[in-house]
Each structure stands twice: as structure tokens, then as C-alpha cells.
Write a structure and sequence with these properties.
The structure is a homodimer of 320-residue chains.
Chain A (H helix, E strand, L loop, with lengths): L2 H13 L8 H11 L6 H11 L8 H21 L4 E2 L2 E2 L1 H4 L2 H20 L6 H26 L6 H26 L4 H28 L2 H4 L5 H4 L5 H8 L3 H11 L4 H15 L1 H22 L8 H12 L3
Antiparallel strand pairs in A: 1-2
Chain lengths: 320, 320
């Protein structure tokens, strides 16, 4: 099946989750949040991985579980990040209140566990093992992300480790669980995990690059948002790592620049001078290469890997 | 084994949980919170239930899981209730901050799942089934509790349903899981669940009664705290249900009384007049009776039930 069919399948499942009607204050926010969209990449990865070894539908509950877990993290992260909007819509804690954000998030995590073990049969222990480990790592990544805000000595390597935990391991987990549900060997499942992990890191690096270097006409949001907010992206950390003392002082002054257009323009010039974009693209391609290596190592007929290969290229080549 | 031995065993396990050192901001709050005490009744119930059918230690990980889950709910409830103190110690979100309360709570729920499935062997699907259902119900109970604050038409029956979900099902779940881990029949496990559920309800009714009728010298905290805060306890709801129009208006005026001593004294007189304490004690004994019926129905040698019977009596006869 192709990307669109898998995505459609997931949307249908999410529409027919059968969450209880009551208490309304607990479940209505979940119905709202699950319907405001998102690319559904993670559950699609689960179905695609399952399809390498059998019918994708064998992993449908687990795919939904991964998406529910992801949405649980978004609801709680939005509180922690004080975010008013998500995908252009009002966040749960803003539309309702803090308590609703916390408790609806909690019950969504429990729903994720329910879906995860539904028809998991003999795979139940294995998929819980990887799911539990991943869930913990995602929390650890979020904690590191928050810790970084108040630190001035974050290295590029630490940043990569943070995004690995906060976002990439879940992609790996989504793939591994899909594979396990159709009885894949531990070795094949592990290669798929690593494929997902490195695609996730490459994806996040691409995100950071796009923020400053996207074509404004295609990007759909303001170019340079991370620069204005002084975010410690991989671009910024790479610039810092490659700067002389003088250049560091220029960067520091730039962070206090109040004219947004000037700030973005001067930062881009400084980054160009330091070769930041190329260095980050090299890093991106390192991870993409490692990801593709692991996909090749999966012992199934090559033509079956087409959709995963295409999805990976799509995630990395996007311009928004 | 007796209550003290079981409790000691749980304390040891909690001390040696082996939570990671880093990120410190995520795990240090958990080490703090898990060591500020609590009666550890839930995990002790798990061990006692397991002991009816074999070695209690077979259910040790599951007992710890129940306690971790309980502590997760406390950390998040304390945020939602804006509580500065828990067991006389500063709450997590007060000692650290809101984000720490949310994220440390989240990771604790995941830890609970890890412990729950550790060495669960062939019982894994059964115990996840009851655990997931219970976890959802606890969230629903918390939502109902919050909803009640802004409602003026809460009935005593609704209140009992709320405390059943918010607190009692977890006692039932603790017992059922302990029994299942030692291969108890579904029927025996179910009787233990219902024993726990009704003990939990009786326990909460006792809590409400003690608030106004405890011996101040033994109680250890202010008598009448619920009255001062205008809490919709079972005492209050029973009074409302048994009041004439005139008496309702007296109760309403009392809720606005600013002199705390007067308010408590007059409320107690009103309740005495309406027979509130006796009615609530009758309700308590109904649930205690139902609980004991279910314990008797468990098909094991009678002398094995001694510690569960004693614990139930202790929970109901306490004076603080």
C-alpha cells in the first residue's frame, strides 16, 4: 500500500477510536486534539514496517498506539512550552485549562497502552519492552530540551542526543513494533529501529536548516523564527563550535539585535561565512546514509522497501 | 507474613528501584517523592492477595507498580488541586516547578508499566487488562471530582461512584493482580477485586466521618477541615438529601459562616439533628459487609485470610 492509503487507514482508526462519552471534560479534548491533524508519519511507519513481513493490518492497533502516545507527548509538551497553538489550532490547555491538559494527556497515555496490547498476542512482552524504553527516553529528551534553555554550554553532540531521545527513538520504535507484530527477526527489527532513529535525527536537522534557509514562498511560516527566538538549533550550535573568540562575540551581540529582519539577515551572513549550512547538511547526510544502510540490511525482498525508502527521501527533501 | 513485614518489603523495593541518575531534573523529584512515605496499603494488598495462593514475592514487581502508579496520580493531583503539601512535605510542583511535576509524573507512570510487566510471564495480558482499565477509571474519577466542584446538584450516589473510581478501584486492582500473579482463578481474583473496591469506599466514607467526628487529641490534624472548605463530602451530601427546604437554607447560610469554630459547631449540631453520622456509618457498614462477603467467597483456607481481614478492620476502625 502507498503512503496515502496507510495515512487514510490511520485516520479512519482515529475517527473510530470509541473513546467514552463521559466524563465529557476528560474525553472531549482528546477528540478535538486527535482530529486537528498531523502527518501521521509514526503510525504509517508502523504499518510500512509490518508490511515488509506480512499484512500491515496485523499492526494496526499498535500503529494507533504510537500515534496516541505521540499526541499525549504533544498535549503535555504544549503545556510545558507554554504554546498557544499547535498545527494552527488552539492547544488543549489554552482551549480548556491546565488541569484538562494534564489529565486528558494522562488518560491518552493509558489509551496508548490499551491499544498497544490489543491483539498483541505472543508479541506482547517484546513490544512492551521497546515501547516502555522508548516512552521513558522521550520524557528524558523533553527534560534535556528544557534543561538546555538555561544552559550556555550545550554542544552539538548533546543537541543531537537530545533530539535522538525526544523525537527519533519514537520513529525507531514505531518501525520495530510494526516489524515485530508480523514476526520479524530481532535482527531485522533492530535494523528498522536504527533506520527510524537516524531518519528522525536527519529529519530534525532538516527542520533546523529549513527554519533559516527555506524558500519563503514554499515554507508556509516565517523564515528565521528560531533565530528571532535565539533557539539553540543545530545551526546555532554548529556556528558556535566553529567560531573564533571574535566571532563568538559577534554572535552574542546578534542575539540581542531587536530588528528581526536585520537579525535574520546578519545571522545568515555569519553562518554562510562559517559554512554552517554545509556542515549541517553533511551531518544530515551522514545520518541519512546510516539510515539507508540499516534499511538495506533488512533481509526482505528489495522491492518491498520502496515505500519506506520513498518516505525517507520525502521527509528529508521537503521544503516546508 | 504480617502487615509490618510486607510494608518493610515494599519500602526496601522502593529504596532500590534503580531509577537513572540523569537527567537529574527528571528523576530527583521521584526519589524525593517516593521517600516521603505513605502507608503503602495498595502494594501490601497485592502481596497479601498473592500470599493466599502462593509466595507473595511472585507479585513483588506488580506490588511496586501499583505503588508507583498511585504516586504518579498523587503528583499530578497535587498540581490539579494546587496543593502545597503532601504528607506534611512540599509537593513536587511546589519544590521544583509545574513542568517538573508534569514530566516527572509522566515518567513515573511509564515506570509503573515497566514494573508491572517485569517477570509477569504468562499473566502479562491479564494483569495489563485490569491495570489499564483501572488506570483509566482513576483518571475518570479525578475528572468527576473536579467537575463536582462547580456543580450544586451532586447526589450521594454520584459521590460514591466518584470515590469508587478515584480511589477504590485501585485497591481492587491491587488485590486482583496479586492473586492473578499466583495463578488464582478468575472467580477468586474477582471476589478479591470486589473486596478491595468496597473496602475502598468504606475507607473513604470513614475519612469523611473522621473529618468532623474524630477525637481531636488522636486525629493529628484540624477537625472540621472539610466543613471549613465547604467540601461536598458524603456527610454534606447526606445532610442535603435529608433536609427540608428550610433546613437546606440553614445549611446554605452555614456555608458562608466566617467564624470557623461556630461553623463547625453549628454544622455538627445540624448533622446530629438530621442523623447524618448514623446514616453514613450505615452506608460504611453496608460496604464493609459487602467487602467481607466477597472475602469469604474466596476459595482458600480460612486462616490464610487473617491478615486481609485484619487490615480491613484496621482501615475502618482507625481514629486518624
Amino acid at each position: 500500500m502507498d503512503l496515502a492509503s496507510h495515512t487514510h487507514r490511520i485516520e479512519e482508526e482515529l475517527k473510530n477510536l470509541g473513546l467514552p462519552e463521559n466524563p465529557e471534560g476528560l474525553y472531549e479534548p482528546l477528540r478535538y486534539f486527535l482530529q486537528i491533524g498531523g502527518k501521521r508519519i509514526r503510525p504509517v511507519l508502523t504499518l510500512m514496517a509490518a508490511e515488509l513481513f506480512g499484512q500491515p493490518d496485523k499492526a494496526i492497533n499498535q500503529a494507533v498506539a504510537i500515534e496516541l502516545f505521540h499526541n499525549f507527548t504533544l498535549i503535555h509538551d504544549d503545556i510545558m512550552d507554554n504554546a498557544p497553538l499547535r498545527r494552527g489550532m488552539i492547544t488543549v490547555h489554552e482551549k480548556w485549562n491546565l488541569n484538562t491538559g494534564i489529565l486528558s494527556g494522562d488518560v491518552l497515555l493509558i489509551e496508548a497502552y490499551k491499544k498497544l496490547v490489543q491483539n498483541a498476542n505472543e508479541h506482547i512482552a517484546d513490544i512492551l519492552d521497546i515501547f516502555n524504553r522508548t516512552a521513558t527516553e522521550v520524557c528524558e529528551g523533553q527534560q534535556m530540551d528544557m534543561d538546555f534553555e538555561s544552559r550556555i554550554d550545550v554542544s552539538a553532540a548533546e543537541y543531537i542526543e537530545m533530539i535522538r531521545l525526544k523525537t527519533s527513538v519514537l520513529l525507531g520504535c514505531a518501525l520495530e513494533i510494526g516489524a515485530l507484530m508480523n514476526g520479524a527477526s530481532k535482527e531485522n527489527a533492530d535494523h528498522l529501529y536504527q533506520f527510524g532513529e537516524h531518519i528522525g535525527i536527519a529529519f530534525q536537522i532538516k527542520d533546523d536548516i529549513l527554519d533559516l534557509y527555506a524558500d519563503p514562498e514554499k515554507f508556509g511560516k516565517q523564515v528565521g523564527g528560531d533565530v528571532i527566538a535565539n533557539k539553540k538549533t543545530i545551526l546555532h550550535l554548529t556556528a558556535v563550535a566553529n567560531s573564533s573568540k571574535e566571532q563568538l562575540s559577534v554572535l552574542k551581540n546578534l542575539s540581542a539585535e531587536s530588528d528581526a529582519t536585520q537579525k535574520i539577515e546578519k545571522t545568515r551572513m555569519m553562518y554562510d561565512h562559517l559554512g554552517v549550512k554545509e556542515k549541517c547538511e553533511d551531518l544530515l547526510h551522514d545520518h541519512l546514509g546510516t539510515a539507508m544502510f540499516h534499511l538495506e540490511e533488512v533481509k526482505v525482498e528489495d522491492h518491498l522497501k520502496k515505500s519506506l525508502r520513498e518516505l525517507a527521501i520525502y521527509l528529508i527533501n521537503r521544503d516546508k
